[in-house]
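Example 3.2
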Amino acid sequence: MGAQNAEKLHAMSHAKRTTRSIRVGRLTIGGGPIAVQSMAATRTQDLVATRRQIELLEAAGADLIRIAIDSKADVEALAILCQATEVPLSVDLQENYRLAEAVAPYVQKVRYNPGHLHHHEKSKTAREKAHWLAGVAREHNLALRIGCNAGSLAPEYLERHGHDNVSALVEQAVDHCGYLDEVGFENYLVSIKDSDPRLVIEANQRFAAARPDVPLHLGVTEAGMPPDGIIKTRIAFEQLIAQGIGDTIRVSLTVPFENKGLEIQVGREILADIEAGRFRSVPKGFFDGLNIIACPSCSRVENEKFIELAEDVKRATAYAAEHDITIAVMGCRVNGPGETDDADLGLWCGPTTVNLKKGPETIGSYSYDTILPALMAEVEKLVPQ
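Structure, written as tokens:
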């Protein structure tokens, strides 16, 4: 690389971030160093396993650790787990947004998904629910994350924008920022995620142009297994951070539970490379051919065989590497159904069975022992002979 190009890349890596700062316990996000975070992959009620996840992430240098909360039993577990670390904790709420009040004493940040607010208390609007969440956060001195995901958009945005996920995601995020602004709550940030780094780049660019004041959490959701998952994540981070977009990051990888610290390690390595101007070009044809999407696992996963299944799918489909097929392997019933809709073939895993989909259509439900042959039969229909 010539000296002129090297200087240009170094200058790009130091693009100034102009967002306001927010407080997450002792951690400041926005206007300073980019924070690196991750999420416990085990069932929250499994105290031994989840405490081990916290230890691994803390040892790896996580600035923030997120835990999924779906029930009152999870809240009871959280009350114990929060005593195991000095690292600020965030919780991930799904449909039951009302649990925010119960978890508030134990954490420093709450993430809610605008696409899930319609599941409960249907008589109330998303605006009313966002106002209530802001009230809880203000009372307990918490930060909020508006966590938008292409696989779980609120119905009204899907209806308005059809298959234009970028426009739907950006509009939803901007609207929810407005809801929090209406009640004078400013201690929030936004995330806009998808499994395709190109969509992540475009959506975050558009949001940053619309709301340059709001800190952004960056991530490529369901990036999958290394090395592809790392490459997808690096593509998005390099291009966005080089433009001054991004205040905290999460690397989502499908790895064995004991390797959870790898997400923090990879995140730090990517940030160090960007800071030093060491950018890596996208390999030619990276987005062509077989694409396996897999979530990184969290406490919502009801059977740990999901990770083995993802690895088995990758091995079994290797022969189709040159064919443009997307296979999604999702670990839970919360996000799995929606986030497999756009894949050619999708698997979402329950406690004892795996649901096989072709696009949005469900083909059948299979045991963990019989799903792979059923999937491969569908793959063979898609691969030209």
